Structure formats: C-alpha cells, structure tokens
C-alpha cells in the first residue's frame, strides 16, 4: 500500500453528486462499504493476475450512505495491489490457456508495488483529477 499526500483529505461533498461524477470517470463504490464509511476505487493498471487500484476512502458525516443526500468527508487516498491466482482451466487443460476466477478472493490483498515512485506520481495525478471533479 502506498499512502498519497494530496489535498483530498478532509474535503466534504454530497455522496450522490460525487458518485455520479466519479462513475463517469471510471470509479466505482467499493464493495465493503457500510452506512457510515466507504471508498471509491479506480483501476490504474491490470496485468495478468495483478490489479493496481487507487482508493479514495471517506466517512459519512451526515445521513446514510444509501442516501444521495448523505454528506461525506474524504480520508487519505492510497494505492493498493490485489493479486489473484492464475492457473490452468481444470476442465480442459489441454488447451494451455490460463484463466482465473474473477470472483475469487485475492491471494494477496496488499501486494508489493514495484517502482513506488512512478506509481506514487501517477496516483497523485489521479487524485488531482478527482479533486477537480469535486470542484
């Protein structure tokens, strides 16, 4: 995981408006949300079984997350890499095609991110785009 130092932390907005604008920019609401906290995710890179995400966590400060009118406040964004198991398709391994189960749990939810400086710079640029959407 790489924490990003940006101007996003502490910014407030309405959940519904932000969700719509971020979905148009390739973000989605992460699956582990509850009524008081959540995060917006966007894939930055995907190679074989490794996916690098930018994650913008937030807290609900008024209302509930299932309400468009809920107020949210962003926390520190970060990069995270998920690694899934890639192997041969057990039904027909003679085809020699590698496949993976898209619904499986990651083998490593916080995989090592090589070239941290490069991805940190990319992550900060992406958060700056997110901040521009906020304004």
Summarize the structure.
This is YugN family protein. 21% of the residues lie in helices and 33% in strands.
Q: Please tally the helical runs, counting DSSP H or I stretches of 4 or more residues.
A: 2
In helices, the fraction of residues equals 10-25%
Count of structural domains: 1
What fraction of the residues are assigned to beta strands by DSSP?
A: 25-35%
Query: How would you name the oligomeric state of the polypeptide chains in this document?
Result: single chain
CATH third-level topology: TATA-Binding Protein
C-alpha-based Rg, rounded = 17 Å
How far apart lie the N and C ends?
A: 27 Å
CATH architecture: 2-Layer Sandwich
Spatial shape: globular
Unreliable residue runs: 88-104
Overall residue-averaged pLDDT value? 81
Order of helices and strands: EEHEEEEEEEH
Please, could you describe this protein's structure?
- With 135 residues, the protein is an alpha+beta fold.
- The chain has one domain (2-134): 2-Layer Sandwich (TATA-Binding Protein), CATH 3.30.310.100.
- Helices cover 21% and strands 33% of the residues.
- The chain contains two helices and nine strands.
- It has helices at residues 15-24, 116-134; strands at residues 2-3, 12-14, 28-29, 37-47, 50-62, 71-74, 78-83, 87-88, 98-99.
- Strands 1, 2, 3, 4, 5, 6 and 7 form a seven-stranded antiparallel sheet that branches. Strands 8-9 form a two-stranded antiparallel sheet.
- The two termini are 27 Å apart.
- Residues 88-104 have low confidence and may be disordered.
